[in-house]
Amino acid sequence: MRTTIISFFILSLFSFVTIAIAQETLRERIRERVKTCVQKKTERLYGIGDPEFSLKHGGLTRKYKVHLPKGYDNKTPYPVVIYIHGGGADMRAAYMDGLDKAADKLGFILVAPQGTGVFKLGHIRATWNGGKWATGECCGDTDDVGFISKMIDELKVKFNVDEKRIYATGISNGGLMTNRIGCELSDKIAAIAPVAGAAVESNCKPSRSMPVMDIHGTLDPANPPDGSEPRGIFAKDSNSPFAMSYKRMTPYQVADAWRNIDKCSPTQTVTYEKGGAKCVSYSECEQGSEVVLCIVEGMGHTYPGGTQYLTEKIVGPVSHDISFEQIWEFFKKHPRQ
Questions:
Q1: Per-residue b/e over 58-69, b at no fewer than 16 CB within 10 Å?
Q2: What does each C-alpha distance from 196 to 86, 174, 177, 214, 217 come to in angstroms?
C-alpha cells in the first residue's frame, strides 16, 4: 500500500512537472509570436529593413529612405513617388500613411526624404523650407530644393528609375514643399499632389506646365479652407511646436495660382466624387497639363486614406472617401513630356 502511494505521488509530481513545462513552453511560444507580430508591425509602420541613404548638401548630412516594390527588377525602369512628410514629423510618416503598401500594390519606388530640425524623445521633429509668397513664408532657409534635386540624381544612379515618371506628394509643410519643387524642379518632377498645402511661391516659374492635384479637407484645423485662422495646437498663440504664424492661401487660391501658372481655361469638370470627396479638373491647360482641386467634406489635417496620427479632436479625422490610389491615377496620366 505504501509503495502504491509513493508511486502515485511520484507519478503525480511527474505529471505536474510535465504540465508546467508544457505550459511554460506554450507561454514562451506565445511571447515569441507576439514579439514577432509586433516587430513585423513596427517594420511595416516605420520601414525597418528598407535602405536608408545619406548625402552631403549645404554643409549638412541629409537622409532619405527607399522602399522598393515587391518583385523589383533592376532591368525594368520604375516610376518614383517622393513622399514629403509634414512639419514636426520625419520620414517614417510615409510608412504610417501606407505609401509602402501602395508601392507594392501599384509598382513604384517610394522615396521618403527627411527635413531638418531638432531631436526630441529619440526622433527628429523636421520641417521644410517651403518658400515665400505674398502673405508669408515658411520655414527657415535650408536649401531643401537642392537636397531633393541631388537626391533624385542619386536615385537615378542607384536604381532603374523612369525619369519621365518621377512624382511628388506631401502633407501640410510637406505640401508646401511639394508645391515648391513643382515650381523649381519641373525639369525632374512630372506631376505633384500636395495635401493641405497652404501656399504657392510668388515667383513660381516652372520650366514647363506642372500638373497639380491639390487635396484639402473641410475640417482642417491647421489650414482652414475658408481662410480663417488656425485652431487648437496650430494657432499662433498656442505655444505649441505646431503653431504657425504665417498667413495661408486657401485651397481655392492655391488652385487658382496653379491655373494661372499653367494657363488653364476656367472651365471645370467633376472628375471624381465619392462620399464627401469631390474633385474638379481644369484640363484645358498649356502643354496638356491639368489642375485638379479636391475638397473632402469631413477630412481634417490628414493624408487621404492615411493614419490617424493624432486624435480627431486635435487634427480632425482621416477620410477614406479618397486615397493615394486616386492620386496615382492622376500621376499616371501625366508623365513628363
A1: eeeebbbbbbbb
A2: 10, 9, 11, 8, 7
- Is the same domain home to 88 and 162? yes
Which pTM does this prediction carry? 0.85
- Per the structure, the complete domain to which residue 236 belongs is given by 54-333
- Number of structural domains, the chain? 2
At 19, the amino acid letter reads I
Contacts 24+ apart (CB under 8 A), 313-321: 314/221, 314/232, 314/233, 315/221, 315/222, 316/217, 316/219, 316/220, 316/221, 317/219, 319/217, 319/275, 319/276, 319/277, 321/274, 321/275, 321/276, 321/277, 321/296
Q: Around Cβ 13, how many Cβ atoms within 10 Å?
A: 10
The whole-number pLDDT of residue 144 equals 97
Domain shared by 22 and 121, yes or no: no
Q: What letter would DSSP give residue 288? A: G
What's the pLDDT tens digit per position in 135-179?
888 898 999 999 999 999 999 999 999 999 999 999 999 999 999
- Do residues 39 and 173 both lie within one domain? no
**pLDDT per position as a tens digit, 273-317:** 999 999 999 999 999 999 999 999 999 999 999 999 999 999 999
* CATH code, domain with 147: 3.40.50.1820
Are both 26 and 79 inside the same structural domain? no
Pairing of strands 277-282, 269-274: antiparallel
Structure confidence at residue 206 (pLDDT) = 97
